Amino acid sequence: MKNFLLQKTIIKPLSGWVPINLKEIWDYRELLYFFIWREIKLRYKQTALGILWVIIQPFFLMVVFSLFFGRLTKLSSEGLPYPLFTYSALLPWMLFVEGVSRSVNFMLQETNLIKKVYFPRIIMPLAGVLSPLIDFLISFVIFLGLMFYFKFTPSFKIIIWLPLLVFFTLLTALASGLWFSAINVQYRDMRYVMPFIIQLWFFASPVVYSTNLLPSSWKIIYNLNPMVGIIEGFRWVLLGIESNYFCWDIWIAVVGIILISGLLFFRQMEKNFADIV
Amino acid sequence: MSEIAIKINNLGKLYYIGEFQPYKTLQESVIRFFNSIFKKSKDKFFKKDYIWALKDVSFEIEKAEVVGIIGRNGAGKSTLLKILSRITPPTEGYAEIYGKTASLLEIGTGFHSELTGRENIFFSAAVMGMKKKEIMHKFNQIVEFAEIGDFLDTPLKHYSSGMGTRLAFAIAAHLDSDILFVDEVLSVGDASFQKKCLGKIDDMARAGRTVLFVSHQMNQIRRLCQRCIWLEKGKIMAIGKTEEVASKYEASFSKLSSELEPREDLDYSPARFFKWEITSSKKEKPNVIDTFEPLEITFFLKVNRPLSYARHGIALYNSEGNLLWGTTTDRIKLDRGIHRLVYRLSTLPLKPGIYYWLVTLFEEHNLIDSWYCYPELLVATEPLACRWDEWAGFLNIPYEFKIHKIS
């Protein structure tokens, strides 16, 4: 066998901006699968209730929100049962938050992998974002149960729009996850800042309240939060609530900018991960 | 014409040490600034923040070669493997690698104690570059090699450390690559399993794989590697045939420790050993044996008060601490003054490597002096056994072998 038949690797200093190697990521798709597979296996080992946690978490939040915001504060739920109203937003919100925090956690927990073996590091935030999909599916089944309980008939929009909206949620989670996880490698402060950011983000997103409560002059600023569009989209598809508070163009611009800059930033930080972690 | 597997040209890696910021505090930066002006110690000033873990490293490795990398801690061995494994980029220079690579820089990469043996095999193999199909295909071989049997579906946390190690190796041994980088990992595990792993590396080399192998255990290096690279403070000190490079490396090692530990306080106890040398040959290094000829070894003893009934012992240890030989001489009478204790040996046929003399002196049953002699004894003869057999045994006996056909 001659040399030119063998795969040739050139190792040289990486300076300046490093291009994103999509082919390489594709070549490592099996590893991505194994990362997700392991994450799901590990998630509920040594827990008494195991996979039940996937159901309990959002369900419990829904109950709490329904009691405090629905009953006590009497927040408007657009004429629908408040549990349905808030659960339809919790679905994408949990998917998003889990995705972001698992991306960050991967980089923290698997420092040894980063130091000892090569693979495109973007596999880690990708696995972090994709692995909560299982939880999402289970939560969604619960949602169908809720619909049945409240005798609410879903529209056929679900079939086309729901997968698309899930995809958009994943994109948003990946965009944020890339930024957070890359920063986190260098500045461990992120670990302490993250809970605050997530909490602020939660209240800046219409999970417990309706966008109709907001003055229309806030529209543009409010839409800078990409989760607004996602949640409005979910409510529209699942519950048929029309949103007049949502701008597609801003959503695309914001997520596009965060995602592309996040990819570039992550790629830039990636080469030195092994030296810093 | 032989094919090149790895070509490295002027590879260098700069590490920033200390804090992330070049200056920790304003105060410190001001002090350093003035220091740098008045003392003109610009070099020192920079050395504090940067370190070249590798510098100007160039070499070529041919296909199917097994090459050892030796050197003290911090010599840059692991950094070199990390760069070649693409874990960290070099600061300067470049490397060309022809073929698929696999790295074994750690034992049990990707293992998780909560996962079962089966689950760990799949993830660890995948993270080290195996495809799912390949893992399925080799799964039974891996389990068999690891000898974990019934524990396959038990979480790793219930494994003994030996079982975990075996499992990790089993996966590594089945990596399918053209080039394998192995960092110091074969030093764990029991002897028979180590032997099995070394055998596996041998097989790989014979099957045309290229192996780059870091180890502190010179017997492994001598056994496995045709060629050796000796790194020191990020630079190549020597590169060439294993026997030559390994002897040079070991010689340097002994010089260093002899400088470190001179025998002092000769007057403190009734008697004290203070020097030893090989007196049969007149050479620069009186602690190196490089022939199978008869030799004379002398130990110097300073006696501070007359000893009427002394006993003297001598023992020879190898670098792993195994006692190879020892003897005692009883009822010695010693006067005040300096004495030479001379041993004549018809030959000392030891495998090349580092050895230690231990000399002792007793009066009745009371220990007066015991000394692990510095410098160490170095044996730098040519290994006479077949290279593949160097794993077992301590001796390097000159021999002849003939086959006579009888009928």
What's the gist of this structure?
The complex is a heterodimer of chains A (277) and B (407). Chain A has 277 residues and is mainly α.
What does this structure look like?
The complex is a heterodimer of chains A (277) and B (407). Chain A is an all-alpha fold and 277 residues long. Chain A has one domain (28-36, 48-276). In chain A, 69% of the residues lie in helices and 1% in strands. Chain A contains 13 helices and 1 strand. In chain A, helix 4 packs parallel to helix 8 (157-186), helix 4 (82-109) packs across helix 11 (226-239) and helix 8 (157-186) runs parallel beside helix 12 (248-270). The longest helix of chain A is centred in the middle third of the chain and has 30 residues, at 157-186. With 407 residues, chain B is α/β, with parallel strands linked by helices. Chain B has a domain at 261-379: Coagulation Factor XIII, Chain A, domain 1 (Distorted Sandwich). Helix content of chain B is 27%, strand content 34%. Chain B contains 9 helices and 18 strands. Chain B has helices at residues 26-38, 42-47, 77-84, 117-127, 132-146, 161-173, 191-206, 218-224, 242-260; strands at 4-16, 50-62, 66-70, 92-98, 101-104, 179-182, 210-214, 227-232, 235-241, 271-278, 288-289, 295-303, 307-318, 323-334, 337-345, 353-363, 366-372, 377-379. In chain B, the strands form 4 sheets. In chain B, strands 5-6-7-3-8-9 form a 6-stranded mixed β-sheet, sandwiched between helices. In chain B, strands 11, 13, 14, 16, 17 and 18 form a 6-stranded mixed β-sheet that branches. The longest helix of chain B has 19 residues, at 242-260. Chain B starts with a strand and ends in a 28-residue tail after the last strand. The relative contact order of chain B is 0.11. Strand 1 of chain A pairs antiparallel with strand 4 (92-98) of chain B.
